[in-house]
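Support case: iron/sulfur cluster complex. Customer-provided input:
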Amino acid sequence: MHFSTCTLCEAACGVAVEVDGNRVVSIRGDGDDPFSQGYICPKAAALADLHDDPDRLRRPLIRVDGSWRESSWDDAFDRVVHQIDRIRKVHGPDAVAVYQGNPTAHNLGLITFGQLLLRNLGTKNLYSASSVDQLPHMVAAHHMFGDGLLMPIPDLDRTDFFLCIGANPLVSNGSIMTAPNMRKRLHDLRARGGRVVVVDPRRSETAAAADQHLFVRPGTDALLLLSMIHVIFTEHLERPGRVGSFTAGVDALRKAAVEFAPEATAPATGVPARELRELARAFAAAHGVAYGRIGICTQEFGAAASWLLYALNLVCGRLDEPGGMMFTTPAVDLEMLAKRVGLAVGFDRWRSRVRGLKEYGGELPVAALAEEIETPGRGQVRALVVSAGNPVLSTPSGNRLDRALPGLEFMVAIDPYLNETTRHAHVILPPTSPLERSHYDVALNSYAVRNVAKFSSPVFERGPDQRHDWEICLELWTRLGLPGLPLGPLGKLAGGLTKRALRRLGPEGLLDAALRLGPYGVRRGRSGLSLRTLRENPHGVDLGPLMPRLPERLRSNDRRIQIAPPLFLEDVARLRARTSVSSPELVLIGRRHLHSNNSWCHNAGRLVKGKPRCVLLMNRRDADIRSIANGDRVSLVSRTGRIEVPAEITEDIMPGVVSLPHGWGHDRAGTRLRVAERTAGASVNDITDGEAIDPVSGNAAFSGLPVQVERVDC
Ligand code: SF4
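Agent response - structure generated as follows:
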């Protein structure tokens, strides 16, 4: 029996994997994992499917005259290095763009050696899935707490009031809140007398299990939060407590909230003023926590909503308090390590060439990628390195990107699949499967509802002709002659180490060093966490509940929390204007399913069987107006495109809103995803709009997209 960690979502559940030779016999929850305690969701079994998948690439592919052929690693590396080197020399480093997908966060090799390669290409055209996801939270944390990695999370297991906005943790098991077995955690919360309130345009699985659910119009969460803050100030319910003594800007926030009474915002939010006032009072009186996730991020006011979410917790004394929003104490402290290696995380240090979108943390919003490829001129993107991502399906105006990619001079993908994006590559370098590599959740443990640490050795040895992603990145880094990480003693050290030394160290050596340097580390003669300790505890180690971390954890220059940063105060005018804008007749939101995560799980037969999931949810009233019946095929048209999907009529979505999940659309030619092709669905990003962004953070504004829906007469 091997004890490992599921890497298919943020919950990081412990799994017990029984094997027979190179075959998985069973995958069960690891009952001795102190964090997940035996819980797994149906997706865990897909780890075996991924490992055994005949469509998974085991050797590099090279595209020659429009056809793919397998090649040796040496030949593939040579081609990549020749082309990247040439383009960098002729057109400069910005001509080579990088896109890193979401699985990077689940992969020790990519978080370490991946960054050594991808961040050292020296390009300003660095993109990732962050800007279709949590970027607004990071921008808010950057301006309020001094670092975007300092995103506080709910202390879920000790709260007595969970206000959940634009999130569906019963299905996601938490996001920027690693929390396996949410059903049990919410059950326990209510069993101890607590209350769960969900605010969402859809009566989601979490809403259905909550004490109260309020429908809110997509894109208006910031108005709702500002109105709650208004009530708290005008009724003198604020009590920031201990944290208030090192918080600046409370009066500016109070002033900003003055004109946003619930009565003023109700026409826009759709939330009756009386109900919102009651909610604000109940939240202020409770020892609760307000949490918001993808729905509040992926919209035109993503940064404002993230800011106001943190501010609401703060003014109610729920920041850095048990049961409130807290900062973790991870064994590998990413934020501290970033400082040590000299990674200066800044905001708006440069802008995208074509549209002038702001940089954050060295990255530009991915909504700009297609136009940076298409638009001629100095600095035009001519080559692309895609690592663990499928931006054709997961970024806005994916169809435009799909059309732009063939215009590149060169593209390389580090990916195990020939998918909707990698089919445009010239070279595909496939890494080992999750069961063939060691694992430590550097990123996800930083946002877990308990402090935990767990290292998993590979379940299977990799084959002699296979490469881990970190080995691929190390090889390319060396052959390209790139420098080490910029500045900082550890960065200089990495730059000075030979390839052989780095190979010997590997991600595990770096992990060991990070554990020893971390808050529980082995030092000054006392015992503590190291890789050896974790190897001796294969189920993982519980490091205790979240602890108050402020003000020590703050990274702002004056070591104070800025509750009303100027960047966000400037955005209040846009919020004011939003109160008088009437909503379009129909707007689109996304949706997540327990059997799916982005586009990753659709080639696993057991996860796509059963009822089709790529269906459009529509309220009965909206359906009746359009003579649409359950199961009818409908067209969904936006400013940028048109797709067709089946409709499902339900009362679980508010009138004026329709919902479609993303990550589908596997019917494009030239892929090798034989299971996914049979349940192709349609890609919502063929109709989303790369022009629709939150202008403050640059995050894609998927939610609230105006659409027209009509029955398709077959
Ligand atoms: S909840 Fe996430 S981590 Fe846990 S088993 Fe399911 S997919 Fe894996």
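The mean pLDDT is 94.

Case will auto-close in a few days if no follow-up is received.
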